[in-house]
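It would be a great kindness if you could assist me with a short task in structural biology. The full record is reproduced below for your convenience:
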Amino acid sequence: MTQEAEKTDQRDVVIIGSGPAGYTAALYLARAGYQPVVLAGALTPGGQLVNTTEVENYPGFPDGILGPDLMDKMHDQAEKFGAQIEYDDVVSVDFQADDGLKHVTTDSGTTYSTRAVVVTTGAQYKKLGVPGEVEYSGRGVSYCATCDGFFFKGKPIVVIGGGDSAMEEADFLAGYGSSVTLIHRRNEFRASTIMADRVLSNDNINVIYDSIVTAVHGDDKGAQSVDLTNVVSGETSSLQASGVFVAIGSTPETAFLNGSLETDEDGYITVEHDCTRTSIPGVFAAGDVVDKVYRQAVSAAGMGCRAALDAQSYLSSISQHDSVTV
């Protein structure tokens, strides 16, 4: 934390995180008059979409839109109606303080005391950490088949992973690519039997076991091939690949919570059925920090709307007239 003097800021509601869920929650809460503050993060405000090129499956943009442009529009719309966006990281929280408020402390030294909190910090896809992965991200390297599979119609595709997510990605992409090669570092899948059988019975999917991708190569048009190493024999090879889909899991951004909210075995925040309420009254969660199934911008935005409405209902229930003065 910086050495600046600590400040205290009182709010009705604080949104931790940004992206489609955070900005949508901010829009709804701002229009309801709660003047939310959005702690959007210091380095990556806007979430994963700021690192995405063309987005063609977000409703309302028939010609597609660049990921960063979509996030800028969401940011500006929330701000227009009174949301305050702060580019700061949360370093600690206290959701059960004796004063009945929630306390959120940021890296800059500000502590927000608030009646309600919405957590929308998302999740990060696990990376391979190999040469070319970052360089060709969005230009051949992808972490979402549903988002980007369309761009690789009739082209060779590689999928990396061995769990259910990798099986689902490979099966989905088999309908687009000229071929799909599934690469797994072990000699058997971690995936469920039904998912593995579906992949193994698909004539357009080839499986390479006991192998890892060690590099992604390409040119100014994007990815072209990957280097492989067999972890048993040490043999190296190269495989043509216009699309490289990494499906080795994701990590929810919940470390700053320090166990203050209930999570599942993978670290995703658990919420009550059919709503966004967490294990702590007055704390709500939305987007990829909750959702490890769909992980789409539009579903995150929808959940952000639900979290805002749940937060509004909570705020109304605890005080009809005594709102915090900003």
User: Anything to note?
Assistant: The chain has two domains: 7-124+250-318, 127-246. Confidence is low (pLDDT under 50) at residues 1-5.
